[in-house]
Every structure is written in structure tokens, then in C-alpha cells.
Design brief:
The complex is a heterodimer.
Chain A lengths: L1 H10 L5 H21 L29 H28 L6 H23 L11 H12 L5 H23 L5 H21 L27 H5 L3 H10 L2
Chain B lengths: L30 H18 L4 H4 L20 H23 L6 H22 L12 H12 L4 H23 L5 H22 L6 H4 L18 H4 L2
The chains are: A mainly alpha, B mainly alpha.
């Protein structure tokens, strides 16, 4: 009986502590040997590819713009073209009231430049349609002032205000447009507006910039944004633009 | 010149701003940085050659080269900071040179200090875009051109004209960069800086300019990029 029991124990696969340690050692040695022979010389104990650090996220391919994004871009460009057309009209109507010959000559040229800008920006849109002068801005900003422009100083200061508003709107558009070349395009005109502010400001005496960043809190009203404002009523584009301006 | 275009401007009198940071790193140039800086250097030259700044720039930098865009055609925030912050720092140094030794009268000195602060704000903002935290080095093209020219004269009008040309060149370089900047918010920030720099160019030259048309073009053209290796730092050439 006891011999049978002993023989059963001897043939059973039961693992003793000694055999476990022995087996583990062989496996570890084998793994180390295989790792050393592998072509990539991966460290022992490293399994699979190392995790990608989250501080350096992979570059995603550029996504195709959605219809909404394209529409928003077109709204920006159409609006800017319509504002340019309005500002050109204002110059044409008021330049003659400027008595200083050099400034009057400059104002006439500025009006022509805005007319050209309106066409150029319209040409950058998909439909290439030049919108008419912006009626919302005319109602909100131009019409209330028109009867008060009695002196050269008033005219020049008002024109400077218009230029400043337009420059701020251009800069805000640069923070909204999704196509880099469009952002560059609008700022070529925005910078020109900023230059005119410096000439026309303070009744033609000249206005020095007082901040490192051009202020963008003096934008056209949200209702003046074309396309989206007409479709959605409360001019979300204008609101978002103003929110951007707070940045 | 003793009068300013607008005399009733109240200038903020502040202490002079430091332009060199104490722990400024010499350089962290890699291939991408070099290419973008080279393109930027060419951009500055492309604008400068049409005006007085052209003669202030080193001859070697005016030789030009074939146009080349940044390494991958795009400027992410890091690359934008590395490319544009050095020219803002150099502008700070240009005003430092202009303000030294009483070359400008008190009115223009106040204006100069104000505009210097504007460039320092821009430099700080653009430096903040650099991932590594490295401190950029002032652009050597402006250092060897505008700064050197200002340092070599005591004529106020010459200095103001040189600063005006520099402002125009910097604004045009920012405009050039906008075509490649990938982030919209960064683009807007650059737009704000370049608009003010455009204004500063006009304000500085307003009294001396006989023709307003030259100061107020219908369109402010961006600089054309060209990989003209600007006068380099020792780290870029190994010299």
C-alpha cells in the first residue's frame, strides 16, 4: 500500500518548490537569450510598442471643411466686401467737405481704395458676387452721424472711426477664417485701414497707437454680418466675433 | 523736429524696460528653425529693398535667393514664435539705440518708449508660443542693419525714418507669416500686432513724408519669402 502511494506521488506532475524555481530560471534565461537575439534589441521585460506620450499628440490630417465652415467663411468675406462698399460711399459723399488740400486728396484716394478692396474681397468668395453697401451698418453707424459732420475735423474723425471699425473687423475675421490665405488676404486690407486711422485720427492731426495690440472691441454690429445673420436671425457670427474680440 | 502730429497725447512715463533676459539662451537652432528664420530674413530684405531700410541692411543680406517656404509650408505656434519673436526683440533693441544719448527730443523719446513697449509686449507674447521655453535671440538682420545705422547717427529725422522703415518691414513680415500660420487665434494675435506696427510706421514718418500716398497704400503687401541666409549667429554656422 505504501509503495503504491509513493509511486503515484513520484509519477504525478505536482510541482515542488525546487522544480518551480528551476523552471522559472530556465524561462527567464530563455527570454533573455531571445531578446538579445532579436533585431531591435528591445529591453528585457518590455512588451509591445511603448505608449505614445500624451504631451506630443500625433498630427492629424487636415479635415475637409464642412458646409457650415465654408458658409461661415463666405459670410465673413461677403460682409467685409459690403462694409468696404459702404465706406467707399461715405468717403465719396464727404471728401469734398475736407478743406485741407492734402487730406482731401488723400480722402478721395482712400474712397477709391475701399471701392477696389470691396471688389477684390468679393472676388475671393466662391460666388464672386460683389454685395451692395452694408445697409445694417449704414443704419447703425453712418446715418446717425451724417447730419453732424459739419466741420473738417468732424468728418476726418468720423472717417477715422470707420477705418478703425473696419480694421478691427478685419482682424477679428483673421481669427475666424479657416483658410490661412484668406486670413492673409484680409489683413493686407486691415493693415491699410490701420494706417489710415493714424493719418485721419484726431481731426486729421494724427493718432498714435497706444496699445501693442490693435483693439478689437469696436466691431461692426452682429446684425451687419451677411448670410448667416439673415438665416439665423440673431447673427451668431457677429456674436462669436465679438466674443473673439475679448480674447 | 520738435512737434508731434498730435500734441495732446498723454504718454505714459514708465521706467525703461529691460530687453535682455538674464538667463538668455544663446540659441536652439534646428533645421526647421533655420529654414524659417532664413525665409523670414529674406522677407525682411524683400520689403526693405524698396525703401531706406534697404540701404540699412547688410549687403550680403540683399543678394536674395530663390523663394522658399518654411520647411513644411506651415507655421505652427512653436515655429511662429521662433520665427517672429526675434524680430520683435530686435525692434526693442532698435528703439533702445534710438533712445540712447539723447538723440531724440523729449516728445519723440516718449513716443519711442511707448513703441518700444509695444514691441516688448509682442516679443513676450510670441516667445510664449515656443514649446521649449527657449529665449529667442534678437534678429541679426535688424541688429546689423537698423540698429547699427541708428547707432551711427545723431540726426533725429534719419532715426525716425529708419524706425518707420523697420516697422513697415516687420509688419510685412508678419503678413508674410500669416499665409503659413496654422492656428486662427495666433493669426488674430499676429494681425493685431502688425496693425499697430503699421500705424507706428505711419506715425513716425507722418511729418517728414511729403506724399501721404506712400504712407497709406491701398493694400499693405506681405513680404515675399526668400531663404536668404541672414547674418547668422555663431550657432547656426559654427563660426
Amino acid at each position: 500500500m505504501s509503495e503504491n502511494v509513493m509511486s503515484e506521488h513520484a509519477e504525478s506532475p505536482t510541482t515542488s518548490r525546487r522544480s518551480l524555481l528551476k523552471t522559472s530560471g530556465l524561462v527567464a534565461a530563455g527570454a533573455a537569450f531571445m531578446a538579445a537575439c532579436s533585431p531591435d534589441h528591445q529591453k528585457v521585460g518590455v512588451s509591445g510598442e511603448p505608449a505614445v506620450p500624451t504631451s506630443n499628440p500625433p498630427t492629424l490630417p487636415d479635415a475637409e471643411p464642412t458646409a457650415a465652415v465654408i458658409a461661415a467663411n463666405q459670410s465673413q468675406l461677403h460682409t467685409l466686401a459690403s462694409v468696404e462698399a459702404l465706406v467707399a460711399e461715405v468717403y465719396g459723399k464727404n471728401a469734398a467737405a475736407i478743406t485741407d488740400g492734402q487730406l482731401r486728396e488723400a480722402a478721395v484716394r482712400f474712397g477709391q481704395d475701399h471701392e477696389t478692396a470691396a471688389k477684390a474681397i468679393a472676388a475671393a468668395t466662391i460666388d464672386k458676387v460683389a454685395p451692395p453697401a452694408n445697409e445694417e451698418l449704414r443704419t447703425a453707424m453712418v446715418a446717425p452721424m451724417q447730419g453732424l459732420l459739419n466741420t473738417q475735423e468732424h468728418v476726418l474723425s468720423f472717417l477715422a472711426d470707420l477705418e478703425s471699425t473696419l480694421a478691427a473687423t478685419y482682424i477679428t475675421a483673421a481669427g475666424v477664417l479657416t483658410v490661412a490665405s484668406d486670413r492673409q488676404l484680409v489683413m493686407t486690407y486691415g493693415a491699410a485701414c490701420a494706417r489710415r486711422v493714424t493719418v485721419l485720427g484726431h481731426g486729421g492731426e494724427g493718432e498714435m497707437p497706444k496699445t501693442a495690440r490693435f483693439p478689437t472691441d469696436d466691431l461692426i454690429p452682429g446684425a451687419a454680418y451677411l448670410d448667416l445673420a439673415a438665416e439665423e436671425g440673431d447673427s451668431p457670427e457677429g456674436d462669436s466675433a465679438e466674443a473673439e474680440a475679448d480674447n | 523736429m520738435t512737434t508731434l502730429p498730435h500734441k495732446n497725447v498723454k504718454y505714459q512715463e514708465e521706467t525703461r524696460v529691460p530687453i535682455d533676459k538674464p538667463n538668455a539662451q544663446v540659441d536652439t537652432t534646428n533645421r526647421r528653425t533655420f529654414l524659417t528664420r532664413a525665409a523670414m530674413g529674406g522677407a525682411l530684405v524683400a520689403v526693405g529693398t524698396v525703401g531706406p531700410l534697404g540701404r540699412l541692411l547688410p549687403v550680403a543680406a540683399q543678394d536674395g535667393g530663390s523663394p522658399e517656404e518654411p520647411a513644411d509650408g506651415k507655421l505652427d505656434d512653436n515655429a511662429a514664435g521662433e520665427t517672429l519673436a526675434p524680430i520683435e526683440l530686435a525692434a526693442v533693441k532698435a528703439y533702445e539705440a534710438a533712445l540712447a544719448d539723447g538723440k531724440l527730443d523729449s516728445d519723440w523719446s516718449a513716443v519711442g518708449r511707448q513703441f518700444q513697449r509695444h514691441h516688448l509686449v509682442a516679443a513676450d507674447a510670441l516667445t510664449g508660443l515656443i514649446d521649449s521655453g527657449a529665449t529667442p535671440v534678437a534678429d541679426p538682420t535688424i541688429q546689423l542693419g537698423t540698429v547699427a545705422a541708428i547707432s551711427g547717427t545723431s540726426d533725429q529725422q534719419t532715426i525716425l525714418d529708419a524706425l518707420s522703415e523697420m516697422e513697415t518691414a516687420i509688419a510685412a513680415t508678419h503678413l508674410w507669416a500669416l499665409e503659413s500660420v496654422t492656428d486662427k487665434i495666433t493669426a488674430k494675435t499676429i494681425g493685431q500686432f502688425l496693425a499697430v506696427e503699421s500705424q507706428q510706421a505711419v506715425f513716425l514718418a507722418r511729418d517728414s513724408a511729403g506724399d501721404l500716398a506712400a504712407l497709406t497704400p491701398a493694400v499693405v503687401e506681405p513680404a515675399t519669402s526668400g531663404p536668404t541666409p541672414a547674418p547668422t549667429t555663431t550657432e547656426e554656422t559654427g563660426n
